[in-house]
Specification:
The complex is a heterodimer of chains A (215) and B (218).
Chain A (H helix, E strand, L loop, with lengths): L5 H37 L4 H15 L3 H14 L6 H27 L2 H9 L4 H16 L1 H14 L11 H12 L2 H32 L1
Chain B lengths: L5 H39 L2 H15 L3 H11 L9 H27 L2 H9 L4 H31 L11 H12 L2 H31 L5
The chains are: A mainly alpha (215), B mainly alpha (218).
Chain lengths: 215, 218
Amino acid sequence: MIEFTFWDIVRNLLLAARWTVLLSLAAFIGGGIVGMVVLFFRIAKNKWSRRIASGYIALFQGTPLLMQLFLMFFGLPMLGLRIEPWTAAVLGLTFFASAYLAEIWRSGVDALPRGQWDAGASLGLHYLQELRLIILPQAFSITRAPTVGFLVQLIKSTALTSIIGFEELVRTSNAINNATFEPFKVYGLVALIFFVMCFPLTQYARSLERRAATR
Amino acid sequence: MAFAWLPGALGDIAHGAATTILLIAVTTLAGTLLSILGAAGRRNGPVLLRRAIAWYVEVMRNTPFLVQLFFIFFGLPSLGIRLDPLLAAMLAMTLNMAAYTIEIVGAGLDAVPGGQTEAALALGLRPRQVFIKIVLPQALKIIYPALTSQIVIMMLESAVVSQIAVRELTYEADMLQARTFRSFETYFVVTLVYLAMSMALRRLLVTGGRRALGAGVS
């Protein structure tokens, strides 16, 4: 059996945490881009476009992320698409994030007074210009706190990709635990690493929330 | 796509769904109770207790549920406490949910005007009676929508406890796809079952809340 010192464990976990960080960033950026598209559908004037977007959001918010990942990873190959754990993880988390981000941003759009749209129209702006210049900047700035809050949720959600075989922090810790039989130490350290990543963001979201409340 | 396996699998799917429902029922009751105690303790308890509860909330909210589950299921036996997977899952889910609902219940307690407490005390009620009979019902009514969302989120999160071999819906899905080799169809069907369950649970909580609390939930 290989001997693991405390520092070996810490070093291996920190190396694996790189992938957690990278996956979180990829999913946040991907989810942001897809989420923007969903948002456009969700607030469009066309009734069917709004319905499709609502259905998309309800689907991803009403089913477990783990099932979504399973469908990506085990399901797509059956349809003839071979897929790596990394691709499945990024795709799965991207779709998951897009639904939540679209819904968060939509609440920002809804919070704007009707007059903002009317003012834009009276200035002679067309729909896309109104969105780009008036509506979306305000909607994003109102929803900054819940957006950061969701990033924390997304970072924690990357833990689930260990189950479909993506080699991130939790999967590495399972392997180390099997070799060392020290679950308290190993999972305690994993929890600590996640905490160090998430806690500053939680605090930041909270301060944004306070600032928004006093404004 | 082939669904010939489905009729024979309905029993397993129903059994898994029943276990998922059991998990969320226990978690909702125990988690809400624990969070009422936690939120009250965080406001009125001794300083050390307040700090401990605040840290508990931060730690649970900033670490993944999967890691908490592994910590409890694989960690506790090395202290000599051996938990059945189902019990470990209930414990982990309750502890996780409480961290979120302590915040929610706390926000509700803060939203009840102080005059309510003063009026009740002036009428001669003891502080505990004031909390249970006057403040808590009003707070629950205020937070009911947030509590409903948290319960649904927790039900979806419960899919993860399949990883410690609790025979709930996701675990049954794993077993089924291993037996039928129809992984896409199996996960597709089970995903739809989850969707139906989360929609039904939300509906149930909304109408139930309207009856019991008169809480306005959309």
